[in-house]
Each structure stands twice: as structure tokens, then as C-alpha cells.
Amino acid sequence: MLYLAASARADSQNRLVEFSEDSFLRQKRTHHEDHHLHRVRGLFVDRFTLKSTMTTGARGPNYCRAKRNPCSGHGIVLDASEQAVNEILMKAKNEEIDKGNFLPSQNFLRVHDSVDNSTVFRMIRDMPKGAALHVHDTAIVSLDYVYHNLTYRPNLYVSQRGDSLRLRFFDKPKDDSWTLLSDARNETLDARIKRQLSLEVDADPDVVYPNGNAVWKKFISIFVFGRDLICLQVGKLSLLSPTMFEDYTYQGLLEFYQDNVLYYGPMEVARIYQRVAERFERDHPDFVGLKLIYAPSFVVGFDLVSQEDIGLPLVEVADQLLDLNDELPFFFHAGETNWYGSSSDENLLDAVLLNTRRIGHGYALVKHPELLEMVRRRNIAIELCPVSNQVLALVRDQRNHPATTIPASGLLADSVTIFTRAFLGIMSRRADLKVFKKLVYNSIQYSAMSKEDKWKALDIWLNKWQAFINKYFGTSFIEK
Known about the structure:
By secondary structure, the protein is of the alpha/beta class. It has two domains: 2-140 and 260-472, Metal-dependent hydrolases (TIM Barrel), CATH 3.20.20; 143-242, no CATH class. It has 20 helices and 14 strands. A five-stranded mixed β-sheet has the order 5-3-4-6-7. It has a four-stranded mixed β-sheet with strand order 1-14-13-12. The protein starts with a strand and ends in an 8-residue tail after the last helix.
């Protein structure tokens, strides 16, 4: 996921809303006063710079700087040690771009191993990330964990009928079509299970998945297959297993934590999530927490998810949603489509009219300039998901992603691989370490955390950021 904060009017004078280390430290001295929370340098495009463009002429140097600023971390100042580390990062980035085999232009399913082995990836992997704001709970752990842990647990049964493969936990299977997986395992079956858990294929993914519907069909089957691994079958009912789901969620948090993500915000099954969150925060005090989109201290909002092109539009359930809006903030998926003038891209308008706080994907937003301006005015954040958009066949080459045309103030990625691809494929070639600092500020600013937790998160992040800088300062290479 990429997280874009659309620039907005800060107040009636169109003053810049800012969020920076300096303001953070000032706020710690002034007891975190509410009206200062948004004053963080570098969160939004500097409107003063854009206004100055009008007085110097479109061809003047200020115009060029203003055109570059949204993609280059404008407003962020690096100290001497950060500048030295930035030189290492930019050298690696330019080498990746110039070597001729540009990975973000190729299908992620084909090149992700190469991305993982890149110098830029290794450096970004060590970088503290801030908050992950667009995450689905049934897809938060690695394939390795699902396969090597969940599929080796007791009482897991397998059913194989033709092309159909199902795994389910039973105390006692309902019929003889189910065999204990531990008795049935062999290399062929294990390989089949792995294929069922992943979109990866041996052949060319563009051939196997020629269009969005084809890849969505497999995508949904993975979710269904994986869901059965955290449920217990009781008669005709498939019930969530508290023990299994707790372990699964804890592992998901651990993997985010290992990627230097400080905060996480997905959806559903609040009691189990809260228990896991409390356990994880005890084990890792420098992890700020998680919130559910779906107790104000834990469940913070509501969303609807599906393949938009074949699902019901938001307008069909607008009356029911309006009844909820006084109680729960909305964080809607909308505009995850290539269509123009359809119910799918018009979901964007309904999401805005329903007062959504953030928009998931917003891929089609650039086709609606007036709506884009409305999003800016209302200070609605857009969660861009470029790898998902590529894998689900909305865009083939990341350089053509609509995010490159939006005058955004920042982007945030919630995984190391996505961070790397956004940094190389979507952002300007000039985008450097400054943009990552802005991404973190945006992620914390637009999270559903309380004010106190936001300051706690920024405090923890600053310490981790300095450790990251110290690791690379004075080096000339990046260790594998």
C-alpha cells in the first residue's frame, strides 16, 4: 500500500499545515496542545512556493522547483549525517534506474525476488516506516508462516477432488472425503498447497492472468483457502479459532515490526485483536499499537471491501451507511478501477459525500479533477496501493501509475518491497531520503491513533531513525 496525503487548506487563510521533528519537540514542551498537532513541516506542498510561481512566470526557476517539490520531500531539511546517508541511498537508486533492467516496469510476480535482493531494498528494509494504514487481516503474514506453521498443526484435514483442494480443521471430519494432512503429505501435495496460497506461477504471470477478472478470481480463492486455516469446522459451521487467530495475528504484527512498522490498522474480530495487541505491546514496548477499522480506543472505523467492478456501489447502501456515520468514521475503498463513468469510479464521489476520512486505492481519482480538488479541500488522505494495482492488472508499468500525476505531498508504503518499488517506480528520480521522512509524518498524522499515541509513535520513530542514520553514516556500501 502507498499512502498519499492530498494537500489541503490548513485554515481560512490557506496557511500551511505542518508536522516536523521541531514541532514535535516544541509540543513535548507545551504538553502536546491540540492546535499544534498539525503544525508539522513538510506534510503538505508549500503553498507559498506555489504562490511565488505566479509572480515569477511559468518558465522561471521557481516554477521548476515548485513542479519538483511535491515528489522530493519539499520542506524537509536533512542534517549533515542524514545528507551523507542520502548520498549512499541516491547512488544505489540511480544505479538501479540506469542499469537497463528496470524492475518496477515489470510484473511484480515475475521480479519480486530481484527486488528483494536489490541494494535499495536492503537499505529501505532497515528504515523505520511509521504506520501501516491499508492492511487486510487475512493477508498479514508471510507464505512461509502459513505453510510451515499453520499447515503443520494437529487436526488439519485435506480433501482432494479433481482440481479442488481444501484444508480444514476438524475435531472429527464429517465424511470420509477428508484425510488427516499429516498422513497424506508428499512433495506433490505440498507443492499444490503452496500454489494455492500464492498468486505466483511458474509461467508468465501476464499470460496466466490476462485480465483483472482472472487474477481477482485467484486472489479471492487465496483468501478463502487461507481463512479455513484459522477456523475450526463444527458441523456445518466454520468458526474462528481463537488460539489459531491469535497466533496468526501475533505473527502478522511481528512481521510488520521486523519491517520497522510502528503501528498497524486493519479490521474485524475486535476482542481477539485487542488481546493480541496487548500481548504484543508487552513483548515489544517500542511498538505503538494497532486499531481496527470496523471501545473507541480500539475499533476506529468502517469500510466495505470487494472487487468494485462486479460489486455493489456505495450508493446502494448509502442509507444504511448514513445511519452509522454518527458513530463510526469511514475509511472507504473506492476507485479501484480502470473504468471511467461507471459505478466503480463514481464510488469516489459517494465516498467523499459520505465523509470518508481516507480513500483506499483512489486509482481512478485523476480522471475526476473537480473531485480531486474536493479531496484536497476536505483534507482526505488517499491510500495508494501500486503493487496491488499492478498485480490485479490495473497498470502494467509502475511509471504509468496515476499517482505520478497527482501533485501529492507524500506517499507511505506499508511493506519494504512496496516502499522500494514506489521509491524507484512512482516517485521522481530526484526523490530522496527527505521523502521518506515526509511519508512517516503523513502516516502518523492520518492514522486513527489518539493524539497521545501519535506523539508516542513519533518519539519512538525519531529514536529508530537516528539509529538507522548511525548505522549507515560513514559507510560507502550496503551489506547483504
